[in-house]
Amino acid sequence: MKYFFIILILATIVSSLEVEINCPKEVEVEEEFKCSFEILDSAEVYDVKIDITKDGSSVARIFDPQKNDWKSAYYYLSEFSESEILLKITEEGKYSPLLKLRKGSFRESVGFDILVGVSSSFEEKIVEEIIDETQEEEALKNLKENKIVQPEKIILKNERSFDVISLNAVFVEENSTLIYESREARNFKYLPYVFSLFLVVVIVFLLWEKF
Asked: Taking a C-beta distance cutoff of 8 angstroms, is the pair 79, 55 a contact?
């Protein structure tokens, strides 16, 4: 039993492969790109795939030279003897794909990182949007704390102006100022003169009767 575990451990050590992989660090969504790899200590031909998932689903397509067509990267390329794999990723994001090798019960995988469709300008835009939202929230908070109420704006459409005409009124211009004067006020203004004239007439009549 002891020897069985020693043989199992040695088999595991021997079965591990040294694999070098070279993939771009950044690509665009749906952009075709190549990943090259080299198995340094083996001349065997393996089934190969590059596993790229998001929320448990594959988000990449891999070109199958045997069928001359694209297929989901979820599936292996059977007995792949080339050193380059053609890929394209369908959704943006930051991923940590795995290059997987398979032969019978043997499995080996090598990981790498790749950024898809997220450029520096895109990241800067996201940061700017976050800053704008933060500033807007702070402004609203200040308005509430200071209890600043903005007056409502009232817009009158089709507004018309009307002139009011008084039939019993006189407008007199004095010192370049337009003054409204009613007929009753005008009559009251001349009443003392009329009364004085009446008194003069009465006095003249009395004197005439006396003499």
From this structure: no
pLDDT tens per residue, range 16-26: 678 899 999 99
Q: Where are the alpha helices (DSSP H) in the chain?
A: 2-15, 120-146, 183-210
Beta bridge partners of 126: none
Q: What is the pLDDT of residues 161-189, one digit of tens each?
A: 545 555 555 544 444 455 555 666 666 66
Which one, of 69, 45, 68, 50, lies nearest residue 60 by Cα? 50
Q: Of 152, 139, 154, 89, which Cα lies nearest the Cα of 118?
A: 89
Q: Which residue in 48, 23, 22, 33 sits closest to 90, CA to CA?
A: 33
109-129 burial: b if 16+ Cβ within 10 Å, else e: ebebebebbeeeeeeeeeeee
Nearest-5° angle of CA 76, CA 79, CA 84?
75
Max Cα distance, the chain (Å)? 173
CATH number of 16-116: 2.60.40.2410
The confidence band for 88, taking pLDDT boundaries of 50, 70 and 90, is very high
Structure tokens at 7: 């043989």
Structural contact between residues 95 and 23, judged by C-beta atoms closer than 8 angstroms: no
Distances in whole angstroms, Cα of residue 93 to Cα of each of 58, 127, 132: 13, 16, 23
Task: Yes or no: say if 88 and 60 are a contact pair by the CB < 8 Å rule.
Answer: yes
**Residue ranges of the domains in the chain?**
16-116, 120-148, 181-211
